[in-house]
Amino acid sequence: LNRGEPVPRFFGENGRVPMDKPSQLNPITSPARIDDMLYRVRWVLILLVLPLIWIDLGGVVFPTRLLVWIVFAVIVNLIIGIILQFPELAAILPLLTLVIDVLLFGVLPFTAITRSNLLAYFMIFPAIVAAIRFGPRTGILAAFFLSLSLIAHFFFPLEGAGERDMITTGLPLLATWAIA
């Protein structure tokens, strides 16, 4: 610091970082930048599904339902990427992508018969996005709908699926609710 310059205040009167003004400790990120980052994270998650299922299934052929999900997810994310190029249209993306993510990742456990239920952990993504972008109430609401999907998956497993145990269903549920 140079002499004569005021010392920067990082904390407000109540001892917390003020959230209304950008600073080194609290840079405010534009909604368009957030949508772009979530768009990229969604690509990573879509691409992670293939190796996880391949390993979990022991290298056997991918189920048709899973391939349909991947094609649908790729198409949806490509459309989101196109919308991101138009700022006037991108304004609708936060709520729209939240609904799409809850639906997309909510049906993911129904796409493959696995013993580990690893795909259920992908439900954490929409719960995190809902809680951070829209607040705790929306995060809880997203976690509720995602939980309904996982509970339905537990009680009504895919044809040919063995018995589900409480751990492979309960841990993703617990993680989703803890995040929300």
How does this structure look, described?
Helix content is 61%, strand content 0%. The chain has 7 helices and no strands. Helix 4 runs antiparallel to helix 5 and helix 4 runs parallel beside helix 6. With 180 residues, the chain is an all-alpha fold. The longest helix is centred in the first third of the chain and has 26 residues. It is globular, with a radius of gyration of 20 Å.
Protein topology:
Elements: H1 31-56, H2 64-83, H3 87-90, H4 93-107, H5 124-134, H6 136-155, H7 166-179
Query: Which structural class best describes the helix and strand composition?
Result: mainly alpha
Q: Could you tell me the radius of gyration in angstroms?
A: 20 Å
Whole-number mean pLDDT: 79
Task: Show unreliable segments.
Answer: none
Tell me roughly what share of residues is in helical segments: 55-70%
Based on DSSP secondary structure assignment, what is the total number of beta strands?
0
Tally of helical runs: 7
- What's the order of the H and E elements? HHHHHHH
Q: Gap between N and C termini, in Å?
A: 41 Å
- Sum up the overall morphology in one term: globular
Largest sheet: none
Strand content: under 5%
